[in-house]
Structure formats: structure tokens, C-alpha cells
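USER:
Try writing one entry.

ASSISTANT:
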Amino acid sequence: MNENIFEQITASAKILGIDLYTAALPQFAFEQNMSEESLSVLAQTMEHLAKLKNQSVVETLLRLSRLPQKSPKTFENFDFTRIHGKSIEHLKNLPALTAIHAHRNLAFIGPHGVGKTHLACAYGRACCEKKMKAYFLKASELNERLNNARRLDRTGSMIDFLVKPSCLI
């Protein structure tokens, strides 16, 4: 039997949250006299289900993020030729999400209409696609929420809420 098929099935099972005893599957396949074709169909089925689960997780994260969904802002649909300056290479490397992994903050500063919000939303979307939580809110909304929390003596719970996502926009 092809060892690679068992690795594929095990990897898909892990994504699906199935606690698969690794040695049990080859033993079962042997006892059932399963052909390589049968195992291949099983591997394809498990891979398909794992992809569906991944899609569902990403869609849920995007929905909960409050990022604009109608015309999604992505790095692919951003026109980097509109940006000029010494930090252009940093901006082109944003899709690597190194700031998140380095636990660093990002600030997009510039004149009106250069794409600051687009880049911030694209960054949040990329985080969701990598299964990290992102949350989008306008500065005025943040100010209102913090004022309400302060007035109701719930500042601590509001701060806890704001630090939960990996990416706060």
C-alpha cells in the first residue's frame, strides 16, 4: 500500500478534528483487503471534506470580522503603482503577515484616497484566510464603545474584547 495515501488521510482527519489512531487505518485496510483505488477514493473524500471545513472556518472568521464583504479588499486587487515613497517594499511584503507574527502594530499614514483602508482590510482578510481572528471597526465606533464602557464601568471587559483578535483594524 502507498504510505502517502495514509499520510493524506491522516492529515485530512486532523483538519476535520477526527482523532485517528495512525496505525489503525493501515491495519483496517489490510483486514478489509482494500485496494489502492479504494484508499485513494477515501483520501479524496477526506481531502474534500477538509477543504469544505477550511472554507467554512474562513467564511465564519470573515463574517465575524466585520470586514466589508460586498467588494472585498485584497492585496491582489490593490494598485501598488499608486503608492510612492521609501516604504513601498514594506507594503508589497504585507501579504506575508510578518507584523502579526512579530507581534508588531501597523499604521497606515498618508493623504486621503491612497488606499490606507484598502490595505488594512486586505491585511485583515489575509489574517482570516490564515485562520486568525480579525476585527474591523471605525475609529468613531471605537471611541463610542470605549466611552460607553467607561461610563458603565466596563472598561476591563471592553479591553479584553479588543485584544482577542490577532488583527484589530
Notes: The mean pLDDT is 91.
